[in-house]
Amino acid sequence: MSSKEIIWAYHSAQKDFLVQECLEKESQITWDVMKSYSIVLWYDNIDKIKSYLEDIAKLDYRLNKNPDKVALWYILLNKRNILVSVSYTHLRAHETGRNLVCRLLLEKKK
Questions:
Q1: Distance between CA atoms of 4 and 1, rounded to whole angstroms?
Q2: Contacts of 30 (CB under 8 A, 6+ apart)
Q3: How far apart are CA 44 and CA 8, in angstroms?
Q4: Which of 19, 44, 58, 101 lies most in the core, judged by the most C-beta atoms within 10 Å?
Q5: How many other CB atoms are there within 10 angstroms of residue 106's CB atom?
Q6: Is the sign of the CA dihedral 19, 80, 89, 71 positive or negative?
Q7: Cα radius of gyration rounded to whole Å, the chain
């Protein structure tokens, strides 16, 4: 988007409609889509922006299954509890048999 279009969108009374129109053209909401329309610069509905960013983080995790790639999104959204559970689940999914036995033995000692 040009700076002229960003300023026009910023001063528009129909921002929700503009966002809806921009995002309907795309198959998925990604950070690249948000950047291409400069949505975070002119859209002032913070709750909706947070919702879009959370959707981006979920999609990124579904596609990559890598908690490291989505960590920044959840920290930005102040959702550290989700980050911890995603990381813990990811570690458990990739746990070897030997590590599982060691972990269970250590947990029993506590």
A1: 8
A2: 56, 59
A3: 13
A4: 19
A5: 9
A6: positive
A7: 20
Query: Using CA atoms, how far apart are residues 29 and 7, in angstroms rounded to an integer?
Result: 22
Q: Report the alpha-carbon distance of residue 67 to residue 79 in Å, rounded.
A: 13
Tell me the whole-structure pTM to 2 decimals: 0.62
φ/ψ region of 99 (left if φ > 0, alpha if ψ in -120 to 50, else beta) reads alpha
Three-point CA angle 33, 38, 42, nearest 5°? 135
CB 86 within 8 A of CB 93: no
Type of residue at 47? D
Q: Is the distance from CB of 80 to CB of 74 less than 8 angstroms?
A: yes
- Joined tokens for residue 74: 């959840």
